[in-house]
Amino acid sequence: MGELLKKRKIIVVAIVLLLIVFVSMEFVNSQNLNLSINAYLNEYSSDSNLKTRGDAMFGFDSYDFISPDVPANGTGFYSMITGYNLTIDTWNYVDKLLNLTFELDVQQNGTVNFSWVSLDSNEFICDFLYFSNDSTYTILNTTVSMTSNTNYSNLINNTKRVFAQVNVSSVAPTINFTSPTPGNNTFRTVDNIFVNVTTNDSGNTSLFIDFDDSLVFWMRMDDLNSSGHVIDASSKGYTVTYSGSPVINDSGKFGKAVSFGGYMSGDHIEVFNLSFDPREVTYSMWIKSNDVSSDWEGLFTNSIDSSGSGNADLMQFIIHTTDGGLYASNDYGIRISNCNIDKEKWIHVVVVVSNSTKSARMYLNGTKCNEDLIFDINVTSSGNYTFIGARANLWNWNGSIDDVMIFNRTLSDSEIISLYANTSQQFLEVNFTNLSDANHTFKVYSQDEYGVYNFTDEHFVILDATSPSITNVTYENQSGILNGTVSRYDNLTINATVSDADYVWAKIWEGAIGISTVIWEGFLNLISGNMWSITITTNQSFPNGTLNYTVFANNTVGTEVNFTSNITIVENVSVSSCRVLDTANTVYTLVGNITDDSLSSPCINITAINVTFDCQ
Q1: How much helix, strand and coil, in percent to the nearest 5, is found in the chain?
Q2: pLDDT tens figures, 282-323
Q3: To 5 degrees, how large is the angle CA 34–CA 39–CA 45?
Q4: CA atoms of 7 and 73, how far apart (whole Å)
Q5: What is the distance between the alpha carbons of residues 194 and 426, in angstroms, rounded to a whole number?
Q6: Residue 465: which region, alpha, beta or left (left: phi > 0; alpha: psi -120 to 50)?
Q7: 473: CB partners within 8 A, 6+ apart
Q8: d(CA 397, CA 387)
Q9: How far apart are CA 206 and CA 227, in angstroms?
């Protein structure tokens, strides 16, 4: 039985263009590439009368390989002619163009309307490469029966260079700390923390330090919820809602961005109950305008009014002229203007507000463009209503916004340049000074232009630059007498006034300080304020006489101070008859009257030193 056999040969050259997406947190120079190549024929009808059989030879740059001896078969509405799977070891995919060639011999039975080749891999996703009916390719659109003996030639009679857009898995930027950055869980006796950090990537990176959890909001536009809406990627996780129809696109400065429809479109993003101090704050975002000639389009507003109107703005950014003039203002006197942007270009906008130094500065692409020095923000809380992509009266932005950040501190010039992603290797040194004695934290983030980011563990550093101070130490005996003698077996209370201390303790020495036996030691209790106290019950281990004692205090980082004084311990002996008082450092107490008519010498005779006879 004769079958229609139609043979054709296709030679295709595909230049594979590489884009980077997130896959890993470590940087590597190469990885395995798992590639699958499939060729198809297709007919418009669904009568499933198309049958194919084919063999192929493939080549991938310097990697040459041949398909299996057993050709692939297909039938149906569309038919896979052949497929091939390949693993290339240690393929260095960073910024590399790869050429794919293959030769395909096909036996076809049925109607062919068009054909295509697909490239697929778990490393990337590629658009289909279509061969269509154009000046280069001739599609023979003739229906033939399964028993026809008609032969056709030149089904596809030319070659064509085809471009495939490929999204290849990427790795995150590396981050490294260098000296003198303190290690995690360390103690320091100074009032500053110096953080020295570097990052590296195949492309440009943005680098920043989240110090003391000051990053209060970060909308990367790459992190989405189950509804496909952007979320706050900071540790605060504020609620984000959409108004109108903001659209996520893949052409952001860092991966994705959100585009807004412009004047009165209603497109904006709302964030509720943002909490930060508007007196010391840094706002950062990337913007791209579709039309800079339309004034009063809003980028950002933080307001205490739910409608974003009235004299309630803590901060707003708008285009306020028809030549791209960017304007930052609030209702507490800040006015920053004369900072112009171009349309259809990504611009990095940063506004730093410091009420303590009366300085409000705007930066475009890492460079200060203008500032305002006359204002006074007399509120300590931000507004509960934040609009991204709209101004106070909800006039909407015509363009895209990416990577919106709010820091509850003022970033330095070097930090702003580091945020501006203009190099693949970033060095950032920040000396955080005039810090309080407390537990401080820092965490570093690095992000590349594909939206891939990396971060370090959170570092904890305890500062205690103030040494403890012991200003007053006393003791009381059981009778409440201040610095009086203490009878052995009675209670003894040591009181100390100590500031800036974490722990206070005492030692009582039998003799010389630091040399003799310690007969008692223990911690004092914090009573209130700077007052520390401990009550001790003396016993037979306390010898009579003068004993030295030392009160010690230290702070969190171990800085230690001390104070030394002495206590007099005496024995308390009852006397009920005539006797010799012959034990030094003893209190003899007369108990009752002594009657003896035969005395020829003194009844009480004292022969020892430091003796007290209490006749009551």
Answers
A1: 0, 55, 45
A2: 999 999 999 888 778 889 999 888 766 555 577 888 887 788
A3: 140
A4: 15
A5: 17
A6: alpha
A7: 494, 495, 496, 497, 551, 563, 565
A8: 11
A9: 28
The 3-class SS string of 189-240 reads CCCCEEEEEEEECCCCEEEEEEECCCEEEEECCCCECCCCCECCCCCCCCCE
One-letter amino acid for residue 362 of the chain: M
Distance CA 185, CA 203 (A): 33
Type and span of the H or E element at 431: strand 425-432
Q: What residues have CB less than 8 Å from 298, skipping those under 6 apart?
A: 268, 316, 317, 318, 387, 389, 390, 391, 392, 394, 395, 396, 397
**Highest mean pLDDT: which range of 240-244, 339-343, 407-411:** 407-411
Residue 150 has pLDDT above 60, yes or no: no
The predicted pLDDT at position 309 comes to 59
pLDDT-derived band of residue 392, with 50, 70 and 90 as boundaries?
A: low
Location of structure tokens 């023979």: 140
Quickly tell me which residue has 């030691």 as its tokens. 521
Distance in angstroms (rounded) separating the CA atoms of residues 308 and 318: 13
Residue 601 neighbours by CB under 8 Å, 6+ apart: none
Yes or no: say if 303 and 314 are a contact pair by the CB < 8 Å rule: yes
Convert the pLDDT of each residue in 17-27 to its tens digit.
222 222 222 22
Q: Are strands 469-476 and 491-499 parallel, antiparallel or unpaired?
A: antiparallel
Radius of gyration of the chain from its Cα atoms, rounded to whole angstroms = 42
What is the rounded distance in angstroms from the CA atom of residue 53 to the CA atom of residue 175?
A: 53
Cβ neighbours of residue 53 closer than 8 Å, sequence gap 6 or more: 71, 72, 73, 81, 106, 107
Which domains are assigned to the chain?
A: 7-171 (no CATH), 172-214+413-465 (2.60.40.10), 215-408 (2.60.120.200), 469-570 (2.60.40.1930), 572-614 (no CATH)
> What is the per-residue pLDDT for 490?
92
Pair 305, 298: CB distance under 8 Å: no
pTM: predicted TM-score of the whole model, two decimal places: 0.65
Give the list of residues 6+ apart from residue 481 with CB closer than 8 angstroms, or none: none
Residue type, 248: I
